[in-house]
Amino acid sequence: MAEAELMLRTASGLSAAAIVLRGHERLADSLVATLAKYVERRSRREPLQHILGESYFMGLSFAVSSAVLIPRPETEILVERAKSFIEPAARANAAARPVRVFEIGAGSGVIGLSLLKFCPQIEVVACEVSPAAAAVCLANARSLGVASRFELLIKDFLAPDFDPLKNISPDWSPQKNVGFDLFLSNPPYVRPDLMPGLAPEVKDYEPHLALQGPDADGLGFYRAFAARLPALSGERGAILLAEFGEGQGPAITAIFETANWQGVRLLPDLSGKDRIVMAGWGRGTL
């Protein structure tokens, strides 16, 4: 859909059909003023999603702001792959408990909340270091009607004492010490030296906290995943699905294989480039 049409729909509150039907009418002065502000902001390369306060992912509407990354289409591949794991895992766990998902770096919540919307057999715990991003995520959980199966920890995954099994509210999840079946993340992975070369819409408006990866190669989160997540896996093992940047696949594969994860594979994005690492711990398979 053209940006101009999206701006008009948002500013007017009308559907596309209504705009066509009323195409002969003169725009109100207040609407013209609003559209002018939108255009002026877009001319400064501010992302359209930030201007409108909304983005779509997996066919769902998510509130977004400058505190969170704008959802990318490639991330839908991660969600679809996670769904393919959840169905058989849910059948295996049916008599015992829901499939338990842990998301690292929730942002606006598009990954975990989409899965909650489409998969009633799961419960999701997520962590997010940014209070501003957490506020957006929780608002999206409420608007999508999945807040009762979602717990968000405003914590730093990289902190030495981080342990989600200790932080989960017992009122929310009595089986808090069971461990997780599925780990999901779209972590920060851009190398620090590459940040200046990003598009203005990204480097000037999206949160650097969610873009720039720890360590000189940007791979600090993957090292932390390989080392820390096994202790959080469930009794049947666990699967990890995590996005990464262009050209990082071989180094990330080596990180997980060296840490004794099994079945490490790289999955392509919509353009055929390796984009998602999949790995299993214990008896976790996908």
User: How many angstroms does the end-to-end distance come to?
Assistant: 36 Å
What share of residues are in beta strands? 15-25%
How many DSSP H or I helices? 11
* Main sheet characteristics: 7 strands, mixed
Report the principal-axis shape. globular
CATH fold-level name of the largest domain: Rossmann fold
Specify the CATH class of the largest domain.
Answer: Alpha Beta
Structural class: alpha/beta
Q: What is the percent of helical residues? A: 25-40%
Number of strands: 9
* CATH architecture heading of the largest domain: 3-Layer(aba) Sandwich
Q: Output the CATH homologous superfamily of the largest domain.
A: Vaccinia Virus protein VP39
Instruction: Indicate the radius of gyration in whole angstroms.
Output: 20 Å
Task: Give your account of this protein's structure.
The protein has a seven-stranded mixed beta sheet, with helices on both faces. It is globular. It has two domains: 3-63, Ubiquitin-associated (UBA) domain (Helicase, Ruva Protein, domain 3); 75-281, Vaccinia Virus protein VP39 (Rossmann fold, 3-Layer(aba) Sandwich), CATH 3.40.50. Helix 1 (3-12) crosses helix 3 and helix 5 (75-93) packs across helix 6 (110-118). It has helices at residues 3-12, 16-21, 29-43, 48-52, 75-93, 110-118, 131-144, 164-167, 200-203, 220-228, 249-258; strands at 54-57, 60-63, 99-104, 122-127, 150-153, 182-185, 238-243, 262-268, 274-281. The protein is of the alpha/beta class and 286 residues long.
